[in-house]
């Protein structure tokens, strides 16, 4: 299967980032296009790598990360998965005329389902 889902992993701490990278590494349709350790590097890395998804850290569940707003204003075509490293909590953000979010299952399968279902939706629109 051709790798069609481009993902930039910009999550911290490092252990969480490595776990996410390991999760996606075995997926035939997912290509990791980059890894970022510092939030300040995310937008520049998105400009360079053009991912479909960016996985970021969610420091405060229930509060959208500022980097998410900045990223989606500049790149509304990108989808964001925010992972709370200290809690079993993951949120999916996307932009249209507004920034949307949807709680998803806090698991590898939950994140992969979002990656794959969004790519199908994007192809049909």
Order of helices and strands: EHEHEHEEEH
Total of helices:
4
CATH hierarchy class name: Alpha Beta
Q: What is the global morphology?
A: globular
Query: Which structural category do the helix and sheet elements fall into?
Result: alpha/beta
Which architecture name does CATH use? 3-Layer(aba) Sandwich
Stretches with pLDDT under 50, minimum 5 residues: none
**How many strands appear in the DSSP assignment?**
6
Strand order of the largest sheet: 2-1-3-4-5-6
Characterization of the model:
37% of the residues lie in helices and 29% in strands. The chain has helices at residues 14-25, 42-49, 66-74, 108-124; strands at 5-10, 30-35, 53-57, 79-84, 89-95, 99-104. It has a six-stranded mixed sheet with strand order 2-1-3-4-5-6, sandwiched between helices. A hairpin with a 3-residue loop joins strand 5 and strand 6 (99-104). The longest helix is centred in the C-terminal third of the chain and has 17 residues, at 108-124. The chain is globular and about 30 Å long.
Supply database-style keywords:
125 residues; alpha/beta; Rossmann fold; six-stranded mixed sheet; 4 helices; 6 strands; 37% helix
Please specify the SSE layout and strand pairing.
Layout: E1 5-10, H1 14-25, E2 30-35, H2 42-49, E3 53-57, H3 66-74, E4 79-84, E5 89-95, E6 99-104, H4 108-124
Parallel strand pairs: 1-2, 1-3, 3-4
Antiparallel strand pairs: 4-5, 5-6
Structure summary:
The chain is α/β, with parallel strands linked by helices. Helix content is 37%, strand content 29%.
């Amino acid at each position: 299967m051709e790798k069609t889902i481009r993902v930039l992993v910009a999550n911290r701490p490092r252990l969480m980032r490595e776990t996410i990278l390991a999760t996606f590494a075995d997926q035939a349709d997912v290509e990791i296009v980059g890894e970022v350790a510092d939030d300040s590097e995310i937008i520049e890395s998105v400009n360079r790598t053009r991912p479909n998804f960016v996985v970021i850290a969610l420091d405060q569940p229930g509060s959208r990360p500022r980097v998410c707003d900045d990223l989606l204003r500049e790149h509304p075509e990108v989808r964001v998965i925010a992972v709370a490293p200290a809690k079993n909590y993951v949120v999916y953000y996307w932009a249209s005329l507004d920034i949307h979010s949807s709680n998803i299952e806090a698991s590898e399968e939950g994140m992969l389902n979002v990656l794959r279902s969004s790519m199908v939706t994007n192809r049909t629109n």
